[in-house]
Amino acid sequence: AQSVTQPDIHITVSEGASLELRCNYSYGATPYLFWYVQSPGQGLQLLLKYFSGDTLVQGIKGFEAEFKRSQSSFNLRKPSVHWSDAAEYFCAVGAIQGAQKLVFGQGTRLTINP
Amino acid sequence: EAGVAQSPRYKIIEKRQSVAFWCNPISGHATLYWYQQILGQGPKLLIQFQNNGVVDDSQLPKDRFSAERLKGVDSTLKIQPAKLEDSAVYLCASSSRAGPSAEQYFGPGTRLTVT
Q: Which of B67, B74, B79, B35 is nearest to B51 (CA)?
């Protein structure tokens, strides 16, 4: 079965600084990979997804993520964060075969310093 | 386009009481999901419907949790009786098709506190 690890529970960055959120997955083949964002009191919103092809994927709100098969990673990046990016970020993996469901990581809470 | 609607937004009950949550998915979405999100954790799938049939309920505690999706549109998730460890946010999501590659659209969730 697939699994996801987000090593950082909480990250604080200054507004305007660059951001990288880590995600490592465990799965026997190339999975479907997603990043979702959850603002306080709201549901999850899809930022970007990777299925195949170009390993650098662009998403909404200026986010991008890079799939690295050799490292089983799918890290999320943004060159310059804005105060409105403060939220909880979840990486999720979907298996191509077997159980057809998404498995989410435990999340990384992002705080932005002014 | 209206999003996924959920009600109530907040609920406080005592242990051993019953509670029900309601979800209205995006119009035309055949697949509906219920997730449990415990504080500090990612969402965990409880049950997935395709139209009004159950696709996956392997992580649903069936001794106390039940869910239905009559007519393949709205869905209700019930807990009876509730335990303290059921305190969580219950998220409903929908997608236009089944499968792990489908984009899921989430509602705002229902925050349940069991005292």
A: B74
